[in-house]
Amino acid sequence: MLRGRTRQYGMAIALVAIIILFQILTGGLLLTPLNVTNLIMQNSYILILAIGMMLVIITGHIDLSVGSVVAFTGAMAAIMLNSWGLPTVVVVPAALLLGALIGAWQGFWIAYVGVPAFIVTLAGMLVFRGATLAVLGGESIAPLPQSLRVIAGGFLPGRSDGPHLPTLLLGLAGATVIVWIQWRSRARSRARDLPVAPVAVTAAGSVLVVAAIMTFTYVLADHNGLPLVGVLLIALIVGYAFVMRSTTMGRRVYAVGGSERAAALSGIRTKRTTFWVFVNMGVLSALAGLVFTGRLNAATPGAGTMFELDAIAAAFIGGASAAGGVGSVVGAVIGALVMGVLNNGMSLIGLGVDWQQLIKGLVLLLAVAFDIYNKRRVGGSAPIMPGLRSRRRPPREP
Predict the structure, then answer these.
(1) Where does residue 360 fall: left (phi above 0), alpha (psi -120 to 50 degrees), or beta otherwise?
(2) Which of 152, 175, 262, 393 is the S-S candidate for 210 at Cβ 3.0 to 4.6 Å?
(3) What is d(CA 312, CA 316) in angstroms, rounded to the nearest whole number?
(4) Environment class of residue 27 by beta-carbon count within 10 Å: exposed (0-12), middle (13-18) or buried (19+)?
(5) For the residues of 309-361, what is the DSSP string, one character each?
(6) Which residues contact 186 (CB under 8 A, 6 or more apart)?
(7) What letter would DSSP give residue 119?
(8) Do 289 and 73 touch, CB atoms closer than 8 A?
(9) Which helix (H) or strand (E) holds 219?
């Protein structure tokens, strides 16, 4: 049972190890309240993209256009705000709708025409990068209204002289829900006569979860509290994790990635599932574009450069398989945090960009190699879809 969960918890343990390492190397600067806040804000758009990219990779595809879509939707949002004078409450839904249309355009060619996703999204990367240069005329648009900047740079209200109380309450509520889910899942497994971890192990895990969440929220509360983009990320993570684990749509995504032919024979509309996965990727790319543009306080022609590679790396580090059918939303978040902590920690200790790129490349390679090693070691016994156990027939007696 523990061997089967190595892939599930391996990168989480690695993330903790990386945090401890850089906390020591930076002399305690990594986990200061200000730096933790900056870490969330600096990596918010990569986290958003990583969630959508994980779904794309689970279906067995790839999306190389997300960085260009981030730039294009951010540029169009800036134009609507500054040149057209539209209010933010209109611009935000319009930008998300634009992202959905872009995702639908690419999803149509991939799902219904049968053009490989690599080719379609590579073309999209070129098309929307060129469109960004065209609409901006090669120049930046700045500054942007405060109503957009607050999305990426604002904080929860309620600041007082002491720690930020709403942040602490949110942390306590989140820890309570996670612990409840852990014990509820254990009770359900016991009711179905499935193997469960000992009570002591589950209790120790609950204590560690509560300690980690409350420490993290206290660090944030000691500064300005939880950023608004952090609230957005929590909502996305919880929502998408629920969809992928507990809904029919999520199961269909895993089924299409596991075997598209088998999924089609079982009655799943595989083309429609693939189409909506790319629509979803377009919406999340537009959301990341709004967050990035708001944080930068400008729409620039070079926005979103290399974002697609960061999102793909986060998904693979988080446990996705290039063959499809494997991965989780939480894994994508952990992968994005690994990359974010590496970037932040290496910058704090003064490593140059050359060494940063080299180390990140090695981490990506080792993470995927570790995933392949564990798959071979457990003999493929880990379930493809979270919550489902593989059912193998016992060997016949001679």
Answers:
(1) alpha
(2) 175
(3) 6
(4) exposed
(5) HHHHHHHHHTT--TTSS---HHHHHHHHHHHHHHHHHHHHTT--HHHHHHHHH
(6) 196, 197, 202
(7) H
(8) yes
(9) helix 199-221
- Cα-flanking dihedrals φ and ψ of residue 141, to 5°? -115, 120
Contact 220, 33 (CB under 8 A): yes
Alpha-carbon distance of 283 to 236, in angstroms, equals 12
Least Cα distance to 316 among 377, 244, 370 occurs for 370
> Following DSSP, what letter does each residue of 184-199 receive, concatenated?
HHHHHHHHTT-----H
Report yes or no: 95 and 76 within 8 Å, Cβ to Cβ.
yes
pLDDT in tens, the chain (398 residues): 445 455 556 777 888 888 999 999 998 888 888 898 889 998 999 999 999 999 999 999 999 999 999 999 999 999 999 989 999 999 999 999 999 999 999 999 999 999 999 999 999 999 999 999 999 998 999 899 998 899 888 888 876 667 888 888 888 888 888 888 888 888 888 888 878 778 888 888 888 888 888 888 888 888 788 899 999 998 999 899 889 988 999 999 999 998 889 999 999 999 999 999 999 999 999 999 999 999 999 999 999 998 999 999 999 888 888 888 888 898 899 999 999 999 999 999 988 888 888 988 888 888 777 767 766 765 544 444 443 433 344 444 44
Q: Enter the tokens of residue 192.
A: 């179905």
Instruction: Spell out the residues 6+ positions from residue 317 whose beta carbon is closer than 8 angstroms to its own.
Output: 11, 334, 335, 338, 339, 363, 364, 367, 368
End-to-end CA distance of the chain: 28
The conformation of residue 397, written as its DSSP 8-state character, comes to: P
Q: How far apart are CA 288 and CA 257, in angstroms?
A: 25
